[in-house]
Amino acid sequence: MDLFNAPIAPLQVLHDQQGGVRYWPQLLLPALAQEAFDALRDGADWRSQRREMYDRVVDVPRLLASYRLDDALPAGLPLQRLLDAVQAVLPAPYNAVGLNLYRDGRDSVAMHHDALHTLVAPHPIALLSLGAPRRMQLRAKDGSTRAVALELASGSLLAKRSLAHACLASGRCRGHQ
Fold first, then answer.
1. pLDDT of 62
2. Fe2OG dioxygenase domain spans which residues (predicted)?
3. What are residue 84's phi and psi, to 5 degrees?
């Protein structure tokens, strides 16, 4: 069985000078997306973080894991297979894999933009979504446009460059993502 569906043209969600936001609704076949999610949920080196916000230290409301691609990837995790699937439709010199585990609808990340200093211009940030569907909000980094909401399906891929984004808390979220 193939790891991913035959590549199709992505949906263009937003337009900007850096290529906008492109979305592949089903890069991975559903069974393989679930298998990859289960392996990462159960086997990744998850850690919690605390961060200063509004003059106090709070728990970051999600779990995180990260892996440098210039190091050997851990055996037992499907990271190389997932990277191969992403690079089949979005070739770029990726240097790291960051994982976020949203355990329920209370886990979230506020509107922010990623640090782009480690990226090789003009390559994108690729977001492969696994697990329960989750709504992501996107808008121009300078706030000049209204936020656009997109529900990320399991096995979907989103490519973006410099847009701000958020996965807000939601009572509608059912399951890990």
1. 82
2. 93-177
3. -60, -40
Quote the tokens at residue 152. Answer: 């990320």
DSSP 47: B
Which residue type sits at 32?
A: L
Residue 16's alpha-carbon distances to 12, 114, 133, 145, in angstroms, are 11, 17, 26, 11
Mean pLDDT, consecutive 10-residue stretches, the chain (177 aa), reads 61 72 93 96 91 80 88 93 94 89 73 67 84 84 76 92 72 63
Task: For residues 23 and 158, give the distance between their C-alpha atoms in angstroms, rounded to a whole number.
Answer: 4
Looking at the domain assignment, is residue 127 inside a domain?
Answer: yes
Neighbours of 73 (CB within 10 A): 15
- Beta-bridged to residue 125, according to DSSP, are 160
Domain around 108: 11-167
CA 119, chain centre distance (Å): 16
Neighbours of 97 (CB within 10 A): 21
Instruction: For residue 125, give the 3-state DSSP assignment.
Output: strand
Task: Answer whether residue 6 is part of any domain.
Answer: no
Cis peptide upstream of residue 122 (ω within 30 degrees of 0): yes
pLDDT for res 108: 63
